[in-house]
Amino acid sequence: MRGPISHTGLMAIALLLVASCALAADSNAIHQRVLTLDSHLDTPMSFSRPGWDMMEEHSFADDLTQVDYPRMVKGGLDGGFFAIYTGQGPRTPEGYVAARDAALKRASEIRQMVMRSGGRFELAVNADDAARIKAAGNRVVYQSMENAYPIGKNIADLKIFRDLGIRMVGPVHFSNNDLADSATDPKGPEWNGLSPLGREFVAEANRLGIVIDASHASDLAFDQMLTLSSTPIILSHSGAKAIFNHPRNIDDERIKKLAAAGGVIQINSYSDYMVAVPDIPALDDDMRALGQKYGPYRALSGERFRDYVQERRAIEARYPQPRATMDDLMAHILHTLKLVGADHVGIGLDLDGGGGVTGLDDVAGIPEITRRLLDAGYSENDLAKIWSGNVLRVLRAADAKATIP
User: Which CATH number fits domain 27-274+324-400: 3.20.20.140, 3.40.50.11540, 3.40.50.300, 3.90.70.10?
Assistant: First the structure.
């Protein structure tokens, strides 16, 4: 049996506690000073939900959302790139029109959210806008497009979205499309990277000053975008394959090539890309039946939505799945930082799009990333790059090469 702790031991424990509290206080202060941007927020998918208000505080447990104004304030997130996401649909004239209209509607919803915010959110277009908006005490709204399906086969339509202020575009999502192969299409490659139209897409994005986002693209499509683009490209929400081998993650050699070309990898928090998840057909069947019973959950409100959440939580309890933790997330961040340095790594958590880990259920939890980075020896200057400086540098480079006003 151990004896009582000595006076020296008590002093050592007290000093450790003081040091820990000091680090937490210091990390919170630094986190508030540094301009913090997340490069991939799927929050606009909530903007059309019945009765849902960005200015009110919500709960992931209650309504499955992870970002709103009060939680951004709590977490010290100054803003980021709000994604106009369009799921891949039919590659037909009718499908392209429907996708374009859906993307334009989502862009309008982003503007409506900003207008209803009482000035607490501002649209940002150029790289310098973010610091100005933060200095005014407001939140930064850049726009990005996840999946360029809405431009169909008409590359010239990309200018429509650039004129609306979209500054970052990823050509592809979960499935291959007319521009590129996806990293996750079960059918495998269709184009062996970019299609001929996808090569035109790269040139037009460069001309318009749009940052090219290679997240979700196949490795060969990434290679070709990196080679063809006249400006640095970005991975707005990806992970390190060396930490977890998943098609959505990227290998070390490609990360180094991305950095050598001036690009940035923004690390996401999508659990399935960080830990192994078993295939449970019964779970898939039950979730499919739930979807058929209620329809798209973001269209639900009131008691019907509460019933949906209750039934969904019951299904999740029947088939518990492993979930990544903050340690897993930090493993990806710290690995890429060690690999290419603080000039080429950032944060794009994919919140409201499936992101989130144990210890970071929503945006209010992001100061823990800062605390852990400080604990790992990274400086405030490093944090300024990781949280916004790198992505804004890439945006600034795109502006410099653009040939439109």
Answer: 3.20.20.140
What's the rounded Cα separation, in Å, for the pair 211 and 202? 9
Q: Are 173 and 87 in contact (CB under 8 A)?
A: yes
Query: What are the residue ranges spanned by the domains of the chain?
Result: 27-274+324-400, 278-321
pLDDT by residue (tens digit) across 114-140? 999 999 999 999 999 999 999 999 999
pLDDT band at 17 (very low <50, low <70, confident <90, very high): low
How far apart, in whole angstroms, are the C-alpha atoms of residue 303 and residue 311? 12
135-179 per-position pLDDT tens digit: 999 999 999 999 999 999 999 999 999 999 999 999 999 999 999
Q: How confident is the model at residue 3 (pLDDT cuts 50, 70, 90)?
A: low
